[in-house]
Amino acid sequence: MTISPYFRNLRTAYFAELDDLMSDSEGHHVLAQRLSQRRKELSFLVHMLEVSPEMVTVVFHKAFRFKSNAAMDHLLTHEADDLPEWDTLADTIDVAPWALEMVDVIRQQPLGDWFLAVAAGLEYLYNKPETAQRSTSTDDDEDDEDLVTDDFEDEEEKEARAREEAGQDWMVEQGFDRKD
Q: What is the mean pLDDT of residues 25-33?
């Protein structure tokens, strides 16, 4: 399976975001509570759809069931500015009933359909065994090998870091603590 540099970079950020939400400072598993809180903040988070999609995508964690691996694998080959329309993907994805209202809220945003394609791609990657396994420490090693062979990916990683930093700066401006 070929993954575009865009999804490769976002995959790392999305997996890290979920990992960060998994447990509190005492090591207690708090993912469900934190996701619930994020979902309640959706009207605020929609302002981050383009700048930090990985921070918003977590609201759809476990919301999608994929009916066509081929369609999702094809989605992952696209760059950010070339994603298929949500309407073409929607036939290949079942959305959990509890997430339907969130989908409607997102679709009302100017970049809503684009974002839903990104969210579906990231959630698909998270649940795909061969990519989920690489979300551990071996993921960094594989990405490093890829960067050595392709200078373009090095530039993509810089852009991803800049997007993440901009998102964190924006969150600090809104009164949140900086994510370490």
A: 87
